[in-house]
Amino acid sequence: MSALTHPARLSNIVFALRNGELRLADYIAEVCDRIEAVEPEIAALLPDPDRRERLLREAAVLERRWPYPDARPMLYGALVGVKDIFHADGFVTRAGTKLPPELFAGSEATSVRLVKDAGALVLGKAVTTEFAGFAQNGTRNPHNPAHTPGGSSSGSAAAVAAGYCPLAFGSQTVGSVIRPAAFCGVVGFKPTYGRIPIDGVIPYSPSVDTVGMFTQDVAGMCLAAEVLCRDWQPVGSGRRPVLGVPDGAYLQQASPQGLRAFEQQVAALQSAGYIVKRVRALDDIAEIDRRHRWMTNAEAARFHESWLDEYRDVYRDEMREVLVAGLATTPEQVEEGRAGRLATRQTLKDLMDEHGLDLWICPPAPGPAPHGIESTGNPMMNLVWTHAGLPALSVPAGKAANGLPLGLQIVGRFNADEALLGWSEDIARDVTG
Predict the structure, then answer these.
(1) What tens digit of pLDDT does each residue of 415-427 get?
(2) H helices within 150-284, ranges in order?
């Protein structure tokens, strides 16, 4: 591991905290010491001068509420990073922008309340790009600070990789969970659209916005999903799944380096005994991309329209361009985008049924994290799965030639998040041999 990364597996931490092997005050002190030591190089969190004292106060309340280990809830004592477009009681939501925060203040997100009800403590707000768009806000990749951590959930992914917190919230409208997870060498999960309540989160495009999470391993993600996803019903992994590779124009969006790494991952899974089928799919990816951007730009513009005239020069260039493009989008284009979600989902289901596939596998990004922090990287490998509302997971899957992490994107059937996570722990192990 890099000196800026650190182990912090959710399942290990909550097990030790719940049974008393790890004192909550000691855990908080260790994390706060680490943040003070390395945060100047990573910039994953918003400043919080009272962080240590606040967490110790909240920990004392938690210990009084659940003094007996056997009664402690599932996420007892776990520190959680909250992307700064999520409202959380006691924190100002700034959304990575210089616009006045009172414009978009709101009630605590249901997702934040659910983890708090399960015993978690909010570590703090994690840096986001402006309004979860494309304008970076200075976070660096803990594996190499000269490289982007991805975005828009940049601070959340970096905070988990750095070991600040074993769980962090992100959101995905194009590729804002899966891509930074891959770049930062952690697990990222974008559930089926609608499985986690999205209220209390500043919207970008409500037709596709999805709450996601970051952990360091799949076992930890299963714990988080059980707390957060509606009607969660854990399933065993059972047989090995049949994996599909979506050959064609979509896959060719990856870089030559990314494709070489992906083919090595496919070979490793085949050697481990998985059936992998190559299926011609998504040759209309350019049209899907265009429809998705029509819809998302227009819905973002609708939310921001009343502020745009007064604060036009306050918005970052990248966000202002999105909003101007959205205002120029016709109602017919927006409806075409919305209709395309269901059509793409049905096409992918039909292909999975026809070829007997359980999961799709593909690169989570064109390649490893690009050099520089001005960009968050290209989300082209994530867009279609978000557009269709399908559950997607990125798991660490080796290293690039420059030592940066690589990931594998695994995509399940609509509303079959339990099966996706149930199978992915073995896949994550087998893909790296």
Answers:
(1) 999 999 999 999 9
(2) 154-161, 178-184, 218-228, 256-271
Q: How confident is the model at residue 13 (pLDDT cuts 50, 70, 90)?
A: very high
Quick check: 232 and 212 in contact, CB under 8 A? no
Whether the CB-CB separation of 216 and 10 falls below 8 Å is answered with yes
* Residue whose entry in the numeric block shows the structure tokens 């999805």: 210
CA atoms of 133 and 124, how far apart (whole Å):
21
Environment class of 162 (CB within 10 Å of its CB; exposed 0-12, middle 13-18, buried 19+): buried
- What amino acid is encoded at 132 in this protein? A
From the centroid of its chain, how far is CA 34?
23
* Cβ–Cβ under 8 Å, residues 151 and 178: no
What's the CA gap between 324 and 326, in Å, rounded?
Answer: 5
* Model-wide pTM > 0.85: yes
Q: How far apart are CA 398 and CA 417, in angstroms?
A: 24
User: How does the average pLDDT of the chain come out, rounded?
Assistant: 97
Structure tokens at 3: 């000196």
Query: Per the structure block, which two tokens stand in for 314?
Result: 């306050």
Q: What is the pLDDT of residues 290-337, one digit of tens each?
A: 999 999 999 999 999 999 999 999 999 999 999 999 999 999 999 999
- 38: Cα within 13 Å, side-chain hemisphere: 25
Tokens of 185: 């060498």
Residue 1's pLDDT is 55
| Angstrom distance (rounded) from CA 27 to CA 8 | 11
Looking only at the bridges linking them, the beta strands covering 276-280 and 243-247 are parallel
Q: Which residues pair with 243 in a beta bridge?
A: 276, 359
In 3D space, the residue among 43, 9, 23 whose CA is nearest the CA of residue 124 turns out to be 43
Residue 63, classed as helix, strand or coil, is helix
